[in-house]
Amino acid sequence: MLNLSCFVALLFLSLNHSISALSCYECESTFPASSICLPTCTTRFVPDSTCVLLRNISLEPSDVGSLRAAHIGDVPTMPNITEKSFVFGEEAVYLNPSAAVGWDWEYGPITYGCDTDNCNHPEDVNRLPNALNARIPNATLERLLLGDLDSSCYVCDTCLDSDVTNTDMSNCTKEPCLNHACGFVATRNSPSSTKQCNAGWHYSSYCMGSREVAQVDMTLIYYIRSKSFYIYQMEAVCLRNDCNNMTTFKQLKDAVTVDPDLTCLIDSSNSSTTTSIRPVTSTTARVTTSTAVGGLTSTTTRQVTGTLTGPTTTQLSTGSGITTVSNIQITTTGSGPEQLFVNTKLFIFVIFFFLFH
Ligand SMILES: *[C@@H]1O[C@H](CO)[C@@H](O)[C@H](O)[C@H]1NC(C)=O
Ligand SMILES: *[C@@H]1O[C@H](CO)[C@@H](O)[C@H](O)[C@H]1NC(C)=O
Ligand SMILES: *[C@@H]1O[C@H](CO)[C@@H](O)[C@H](O)[C@H]1NC(C)=O
Ligand SMILES: *[C@@H]1O[C@H](CO)[C@@H](O)[C@H](O)[C@H]1NC(C)=O
Ligand SMILES: *[C@@H]1O[C@H](CO)[C@@H](O)[C@H](O)[C@H]1NC(C)=O
Ligand SMILES: *[C@@H]1O[C@H](CO)[C@@H](O)[C@H](O)[C@H]1NC(C)=O
Signal peptide: which range, if any (predicted)? Predict the structure, then answer.
């Protein structure tokens, strides 16, 4: 009788919907400038997660570089994503005072997101693109950012819709800004925004405290599967009367293109290797779904194997130089998908054993 109950219960459960837990590497390291040091990592399963690998490497010897592998939920600076396979970064263009250089594009930290088990291996830092290669045509930059600033800049703090359809500045004031620069920042809504603008932009414009070079700084995300991108924040400095207006923002935003070089990034996004756990569903009244599954996920994370010990040497090419990566040491811990599934069954069996006894 007991066995039959269990059998029926298990059969019922395996026909019901499943949730998936994803295993990601977790580790962090900092190092002087670009002498990348790969940290020792562990792995952990988290339901409905995305793995991320963050790289922040500077070519300035006095700076500190960093590398971090994590579950997305543990990285507070990550924006709200709509697809789980992406490259997220910060890029900027500024007018170099040297006419020979002109418009100079720079890139900052980059974050890779993926959703197959252990896809955020720190060793793959070498495969990440340097940048999304965001670009705005030179002519657009010149037209919108350069000119003569002998009078004023707009001062405004408001919400704009997602497409910036309304560019009317009549509710904004103007402020004298002689010999300084005009600026604006537009940010997509986020939980941390000071002003909540629903699905739109929080737009704020001002007179800069000093004379600065014309520039545009952006954080943006490129979704690998849909080959689409999304701008989270745009900050600009322009040097012409009242240039920090909504039209300038809209035209800059609409002129952005990206072209990340993903040739080295092996995207295993098609092969879905995420672990399927058959959870105890809500239809079986006496067992709570979330706690049962949540508890299971953490209890089955065990330290098992140790592999891939260094030292190994690989090379990372950055924008203007080659950096040597040394001393790779990855320790893999955690149980495999099959193990987790077997444990789930065992768990369910135990629950029912107690219920029917
Ligand atoms: C990246 O590193 C630079 C230099 O150490 C630091 O100033 C900056 O805050 C870091 N950025 C992120 C996102 O960690
Ligand atoms: C834009 O300007 C930069 C430098 O000012 C130059 O290197 C680049 O080739 C220009 N791009 C185009 C498409 O003209
Ligand atoms: C200006 O502000 C008023 C009052 O808040 C509002 O009714 C009006 O729609 C605003 N105009 C524009 C163009 O945003
Ligand atoms: C994040 O995105 C989801 C799905 O698009 C949305 O439901 C949620 O409100 C967003 N959260 C924030 C804080 O924007
Ligand atoms: C907005 O700024 C652009 C230059 O960036 C300028 O050509 C335009 O006249 C400005 N519009 C308003 C309403 O000030
Ligand atoms: C992945 O999927 C895309 C379209 O969804 C397809 O073009 C591509 O060939 C697939 N790659 C592999 C390795 O299966």
Answer: 1-21
Q: Percentages helix, strand, coil for the chain, rounded to the nearest 5?
A: 20, 35, 45
**Per-residue model confidence as pLDDT tens digits over 279-310:** 332 222 222 222 222 222 222 222 222 222 22
Give mean pLDDT, residues 9-15. 47
Ligand 3: centre distance to CA 203 (Å): 15
Same domain? 161 vs 84: yes
Residues with CB under 6 A from ligand 2: 102-103, 138
Place of tokens 């263009």: 93
- Number of folded domains in the chain? 2
Cα distance between residue 307 and residue 348, in whole Å:
32
Considering every ligand atom shown, identify the ligand nearest to the alpha carbon of residue 154 and give its number. 5
| CA–CA dist 184, 227 (Å, integer) | 28
Ligand 1 atom at shortest distance from the alpha carbon of 77 = 13
38 Cβ inside 6 Å of ligand 5: no
pLDDT interval class at 226 (50, 70, 90)? very high
Reported as a single tens digit per residue, the pLDDT across 308-337 is 222 222 222 233 222 222 223 333 333 344
CA distance linking residue 237 with residue 207, whole number of Å: 9
Neighbour tally for 345: CB within 10 Å: 15
Mark 8-47 as b/e (b = at least 16 C-beta within 10 Å).
ebeeebeeeeebbbbbbbbbebebeebebbbbebbbbbbb
For residue 228, the enclosing domain spans 23-255
**Taking the model in full, what pTM does it have?**
0.72
Regarding whether 28 and 120 lie in a shared domain, the answer is yes
Rounded CA separation 76/96 (Å): 33
Regarding the beta carbon of 165 and ligand 3, being less than 6 Å apart is answered no
The pLDDT assigned to 273 comes to 41
